[in-house]
Amino acid sequence: MGLDRDAKLWNKTMTDGKQADTENGFYITTLFEKIFDVHKGDSFTFRSIATLEEKTVRIDGVIKNGYQSYLLTSRRAVADIVGVDGEYYNAVLTDRSLDYPGQEITEVISDKTYETQMDNMMTSMGGLIYAFMGIGMIVCIASLFATINTMISENSHNISMLKVLGYENRRINSMILSSNHLLLIPGIALGIACAYGVMAWYCAEFVEVEKIIIPATLNSQSILYTALITVASYILALLLLRRKVDRTDMIEALKDGRE
What we know:
Layout: E1 2-3, E2 26-29, H1 30-36, E3 43-47, E4 54-63, E5 71-74, H2 75-82, H3 111-154, H4 156-164, H5 169-177, H6 184-205, H7 207-210, H8 220-247, H9 251-258
Helix pairs in contact: 3-8, 4-9, 5-8
């Protein structure tokens, strides 16, 4: 894409914070860098769709733009590459409505275009996200149930003895089932860290498929949801296991005492 010297509507801020000098160099967007694995200082060869001639340029910098994959320079340089008059335009950037005849317009791209694109992508991913949340709850409950259930089975004799000694079920439940409380907070923190890592990997690996760079983010709302889901799963698992503690019979301890 060729830009006029006075183009103000196109972001020219590079990853190092400086402004790109498109009049005297070739620059790529961060999405272009990711898709084609080209970086600042590298040479990039492309073919003109008008003349089919190859052109090799040196990349002078990377502009922050994760939504569009472009190689940017001056309008004059692009005109020379494609062999057209430098006075012609094939794209116009504007912040207001322009009155062009319909036959002269091939496509109109606005903020709504990208907003709609993001909405469609989030809608398609929404079902997958909720499915993962459900699977996560099932795995959490199942793993907790299996772990604590094994612990209860191994300590059934001690539970029976506590009942013989007159301990109430509430007190026994507190002693047996509270042993994993201290692991809850570290478990939530570890789960958030792992989920963030997986999301960052997904965003990095599927840029070519999605044609967009979605940075992995972590906010207070997602942390709250994670904590609530994990705590709810933990409480549900404990409620299911309370019944097993309550059903443990004190006869087992009395039998052992007779022996």
